[in-house]
Write a structure and sequence with these properties.
By secondary structure, this protein is an alpha+beta fold. It has 24 helices and 16 strands. It has a 5-stranded mixed beta sheet, covered by helices on one side. The protein starts with a strand and ends in an 11-residue tail after the last strand.
């Protein structure tokens, strides 16, 4: 058999026998590696471990090849010299499943490009860049701005002027002037010393977002970076050569120094780097395997690479996009629960919300009316309890427009802040080529995105808070008129008992995570940086809160579909029946107890991929394009004055243009 084996980014076809051991395979690959380089290699060099390239499964040295490897497996050999010192990185190389698409490259298909100019990048395009859907190039205008900015820096250097960060030290050392022959060393020392982050590495998608966002900021032309260095960053991005960036260590002023320093360190060919082709390896070998060269910093360039809020903002953009997606779908899930609990739609009457005209509140009420019983989408479930004597529903049902509504409005505010931040110059000092001036200021401070992301976490958490209470109503027979915990043979079966506990645990954890990170500040840099934003933590915990919300709503949707089983053969509205079918494609009905976690994961994934929203959105649009008369169902709390003409009171009301489907984005 012949195996494809990778060492430091190079691939070797190694013929072997099935009876050979994994130890032999590693040593033979090492021999071929140094033979190809025309060198015997260090005599002390040894194979540290052998793993499968896909998934990183560790192979035992004493196993036979035929027992643990298939013909189509790809193998990675890790050398002892690849393992970093405990002073820098974890001793264990971290393996990350490839998430950055490479199929187009494999097929020789050229990717589309996004042209960056520093002024027009959107948050959703940043997400697509992170997923590897697009490559990057600069606009011609951006290149000219970068060249002019660098020319001013070079003029400053040639005139021997004293300028912060170019000819001086940093922070507390701002008054220390550096000799001209040590200005490059100054920048290199800055990157190495500031690469002091800890924690797990950012996954490839988030690293690509961070790198893309920094490139966009540099493209504005206020950083003083050279066009040569900027193009090296772009080449690394397009090849998915991604430095090892630990997620912890930034206080969010002066920018995200530690994470961005790790990014720059990898581009210098130091530390670890990842690519789909090489996996994790020494940065210089990963760059070399993609025919790229390490960056050689020029004066000012180290500072230009690390001053800014790009970690906070890139993570924040992901949190925002996911929060908006789950917020849209929370209305669908809530509608399904209201339906199976036999609630009323009267609380969503447009005239109720017109007299308290918050945009988000009206938007949610519109969606709920389109999903629930109407002439366009009649519901047999709704018809079955039309004349019940229930006075009103619980707050978590009838107050969805008011609570979900403010989440929508909060996210609109967050979007406005992050959309500005994505296209903002956040360096210090700022290089104004058109004025011939370099100015020290504070655009690196992360308070704007930090505050916005704290608001995001607080806002989106309420979706889970409402959802968990609705799950309680679904599983509690005293509130639902359904079997306890949505299962037959209660006692023998526990049904959704612990699924609800999981939701409660996640909501409780979110309550702690919603404490604002940005209200905290600790003085750093010997008192020079006497107020910081703590935006890095604000961004990381916002993502965690959103993830929990997705999971709680996944549990609720699963429970609502299970409740529907006890209402059959009645049918709900056409949109909700489509949601039911989609859920049943990944999670079958609960007949008796079984392993529940896979069902929760599968339904949560439907929400994360927005499949629920994509299924109902055209049906919501159809409702508003075809039904001009608003359906008004019977309610025992409705009282109307008898009209003087003796005619019966109207049961339906024509809908205004403000409730059209165009507002249901």
């Amino acid at each position: 058999m012949k195996l494809s084996i990778r060492v430091r980014g190079d691939w070797f076809a190694v013929p072997c026998k099935g009876t050979d051991t994994i130890r032999w395979l590693g040593e033979e690959t090492l021999r071929r590696f140094y033979k190809q380089r025309g060198s015997p290699g260090p005599s002390a060099e040894k194979v540290y471990e052998v793993r499968k390239a896909k998934g990183g499964a560790l192979l035992d040295f004493d196993d036979s090849i035929k027992d643990v490897i298939d013909d189509n497996d790809f193998i990675t050999v890790v050398l002892e010299s690849d393992i970093s010192s405990p002073m820098s990185l974890p001793a264990e190389i971290v393996y990350v499943e490839e998430k950055v698409p490479s199929e187009d490259v494999d097929r020789g298909v050229e990717k589309e490009y996004i042209a960056l100019d520093g002024d027009s990048l959107s948050t959703d395009d940043l997400i697509r860049l992170g997923k590897g859907i697009y490559n990057i190039k600069l606009t011609a205008e951006a290149e000219q701005k970068v060249l002019k900015s660098r020319a001013l820096v070079d003029d400053i250097l040639n005139s021997n002027k004293v300028v912060y960060g170019i000819t001086t030290g940093f922070g507390k050392f701002a008054r220390t002037t550096i000799d001209k022959d040590k200005l490059v060393e100054l920048q290199e020392n800055l990157i190495r010393s500031h690469s002091a982050g800890v924690g797990s590495a950012l996954p490839p998608e988030r690293t690509k977002m961070l790198l893309a966002l920094r490139i966009n900021v540099l493209a504005k032309g206020y950083s003083g970076i050279s066009l040569e260095t900027l193009k090296q960053l772009i080449a690394a991005f397009n090849a998915s050569c991604l430095p090892w960036i630990p997620e912890k260590g930034t206080v969010g002023a002066s920018g995200d120094l530690a994470p961005l320093a790790h990014m720059a360190l990898g581009m210098m060919g130091e530390g670890k780097m990842w690519s789909p082709k090489s996996g994790w390896a020494e940065a210089k070998f990963v760059l070399e395997s993609h025919n790229l060269s390490p960056i050689k910093l020029k004066p000012k360039e180290g500072l230009a690479l690390i001053n800014g809020t790009q970690l906070i903002t890139s993570l924040g953009c992901e949190a925002l996009e996911r929060a908006e997606a789950i917020t849209r779908q929370a209305d669908v899930v809530a509608a399904f629960t209201l339906e199976v609990l036999k609630g009323t739609t009267r609380a969503f009457d447009s005239k109720v919300h017109d007299v308290r005209p918050h945009k988000g509140q009206i938007l949610v009420a519109n969606r709920l009316r389109a999903l629930l019983h109407s002439e366009t989408y009649p519901s047999e479930v709704s018809e079955s309890h039309r004349f019940c004597n229930r006075v009103q529903d619980a707050y978590t049902l009838r107050c969805c427009p008011q609570v979900h509504g403010i989440v929508n409005d909060t996210l609109q505010f967050v979007r406005s802040v992050l959309s500005t931040e994505v296209n903002s110059a956040t360096d210090n000092p700022m290089v104004f080529a058109e004025l011939g001036e370099i100015v020290s200021a504070g655009n690196f401070h992360g308070e704007y995105p930090a505050k916005a992301l704290d608001y995001l976490a607080i806002g989106v958490h309420e979706l889970a808070s409402m959802s968990e209470r609705r799950i309680e109503r679904l599983v509690n027979p005293a509130l639902s008129e359904l079997p306890a915990f949505l299962t037959n043979d209660g006692g023998l079966n526990s049904g959704f008992m612990i699924a609800h506990c999981t939701a409660a645990a996640l909501v409780s954890e979110n309550k702690v995570l919603c404490h604002p990170a940005s209200v905290d500040s600790l003085t750093t840099s010997a008192g020079t940086e006497d107020h910081v934003s703590m935006g890095g933590f604000a961004a990381r915990k916002a993502l965690r809160v959103v993830e929990h919300v997705e999971q709680v709503l996944g549990i609720e949707l699963l429970a609502a579909c299970q409740a529907m089983e006890f209402l059959r053969p009645l049918k709900t509205t056409a949109p909700l029946e489509e949601v039911y079918k989609l859920v049943r494609e990944v999670a079958r009905p609960w007949v008796k107890d079984r392993f529940m976690a896979p069902d929760i994961d599968a339904v949560t994934k439907l929400l994360q991929e927005e499949k629920i929203w994509y299924k109902v959105k055209p049906m919501i649009d159809h409702y508003y394009s075809h039904q001009s008369i608003e359906t008004r169902v019977f309610s025992p709390t409705s009282t109307m004055r008898e009209p003087t003409n003796g005619l019966p009171p109207p049961k339906r009301r024509r809908m205004g243009r403000t409730t059209s489907g165009s507002s249901l984005k």
